[in-house]
Amino acid sequence: ENLCFVHLSRSLSFFSLQTFEKLLIANRGEIACRVIKTCKKMGIKTVAIHSDVDANAVHVKMADEAVCVGPAPTSKSYLNMDAIMEVIKKTRAQAVSLNESICCSFISSLSLQASEGVTFIGPDTHAIQAMGDKIESKLLAKNAKVNTIPGFDGVVKDADEAVRIAREIGYPVMIKASAGGGGKGMRIAWDDEETREGFRFSSQEAASSFGDDRLLIEKFIDNPRHIEIQVCGVLADKHGNALWLNERECSIQRRNQKVVEEAPSTFLDPETRRAMGEQAVALAKAVKYSSAGTVEFLVDSSKNFYFLEMNTRLQVEHPVTECITGLDLVQEMIRVAKGYPLRHKQADIPINGWAVECRVYAEDPYKSFGLPSIGKLSQYQEPLHVPSVRVDSGIQQGSDISIYYDPMISKLITYGSNRAEALKRMEEALDNYVIRGVAHNISLLREVIIHPRFVQGDISTKFLPEVYPDGFKGHKLTDLERRELLATAASLYVAEQLRSQRFLGTPRIPIAKSKRSSWELSVRLGDGIYPVAVSKDGSSFSVEVDGMKLNVTSEWNLASPLLSVTIDGTQRTIQRLSRNASGDTSIQFLGTVYKLQILTKVAAELSKYMPEKAAEDTSSILRSPMPGAVVAVSVKPGDTVSEGQEICVIEAMKMQNSMIAAKTGKV
């Protein structure tokens, strides 16, 4: 967290300014924890709200007070404004930090609370209402001379009208929720059928996530970059001042949700950066914006940029801006809310170094680049021992990842004097991140940041489907990497065999020590079976694979979740995730988990006599690829369905997914 202050250390001297005695945080997870950290530094007491399933959440433990506001569903807890208003009165909080969904849905309540002397940490309600509605915000942007995307400026009434409008604009089009954000309620349509389906799912997701099912349609800019300007993209105060704090590149996305962000962008030149910043400030001033916010743009290959939306909140990716500017954006929001003027001029805002953020999700990246996973974090260790690493999280070992909330585990941020240094530190941090108990997207994140296209800055919002047209398959091992993995796995096996022969203390009966120093093994990796010869030389092993010898050295602390191994002078950090008595073992190597089977030469020869377990026939079963709630069933027993026909709709983490028949048959 101290990365925020590596450049502008004078920020710390302003924590002593009088602001508020007590602040209520109507949010959860990493962002609630982030706000609490700054409040503690500023001497502000905090009140957390939580649902019943979040009673032991990290943000609840960090706050000075905590109050339960309802059951797990967000509509009955974190979006339950009546309960939140009651907590504000009960705890006598002087200020409140709300999530954007509450802000958009309960404008009148906020105004009432303001009249009773409670300050909202964020922009005024009229700015939230104007910018929270994509239709109104687009009209305001046009009037403020901000570049906008061609499209229909009104509310789309039904699927038929959606098709008519889409034809008039010209395919492809983007269908999105007027009150939306975070990729929810958004669909790309390339024809009439996809427009009808997109209208249905987008309206349902919008109603579920935002309590507002209104939709708009605009031209889809194919193959753009997603670059946003932090006003803190604009930072504005109540004295008519506004700043833009440079840009963030957010083009690596899946399902319109950001995965990797960085600041600054490799694409922008100073002139384009200034033009985007000035338009962002113009929009902020047009709506009398008085807090931190983000103006998002789509940028084409010719550096033409178009207003996408303005988010009237502290964005998930704000840490990368803090790293390169040295500003604490939460502190600035609190100061502005109290009425203090901005203490910086535009000329004061630097770009110092480079910062990269990876969103670590409890998701299976091998399914549509990330379908949600639930479970308990049985083991969790953040890579904070790696230099220049920051982790913003709201979970800990033992935390539950449930179907009710966003599956984000943390935001992993690395900083460097240049982009190459920041990316190298990110690679190391991902290798040293221990997450057990749920599926996670570490493998995808690591592959993205080392991919030649990403390293060169050749990216767009279509990066993932272009680089992985058949879906993500994990790291593809080179011949050298395959030998390194085989040698490491064989060395681990032998190290464990040797450990199992040791006795602690003095045995009552003398035991002859084994003088064995070589082992002949058979290692199965994927479809290949490889003979491996291992010999011990002190704390090192000499391993022969494919007729080549490799020297493998480590401390061999088999109880540690992380194992640093040196293979012929190359250092690798690996994780052994599982093993059993049959020789099966799972090893995380270069970010990807590989399943191996390690047997002695004799056991491998005998294994051919073991019967193989027949694979389950699932062709007649529709099995959800993720946990969630069934929100619609489109068939009934006795119906005949064809391949590709929708059977039901599953909602998970507020996203709706259509489940289709894999073959023609009868239900």
From TrEMBL:
Its EC number is 6.4.1.3. Its cofactor is biotin. Residues 19-469 form the Biotin carboxylation domain. It is found in: Mitochondrion matrix. The keyword NAD does not apply. Residues 138-338 form the ATP-grasp domain. The keyword Magnesium applies. Residues 613-667 form the Lipoyl-binding domain. Keywords: ATP-binding, Biotin, Ligase, Lipid degradation, Lipid metabolism, Magnesium, Manganese, Metal-binding, Nucleotide-binding, Transit peptide. Pathway: Metabolic intermediate metabolism; propanoyl-CoA degradation; succinyl-CoA from propanoyl-CoA: step 1/3. GO terms for cellular component: mitochondrial matrix. It holds the Pfam family PCC_BT. GO terms for biological process: lipid catabolic process. One of its GO terms (molecular function) is propionyl-CoA carboxylase activity. It catalyses: butanoyl-CoA + hydrogencarbonate + ATP = (2S)-ethylmalonyl-CoA + ADP + phosphate + H(+); propanoyl-CoA + hydrogencarbonate + ATP = (S)-methylmalonyl-CoA + ADP + phosphate + H(+). This is Propionyl-CoA carboxylase alpha chain, mitochondrial. The gene is Pcca.
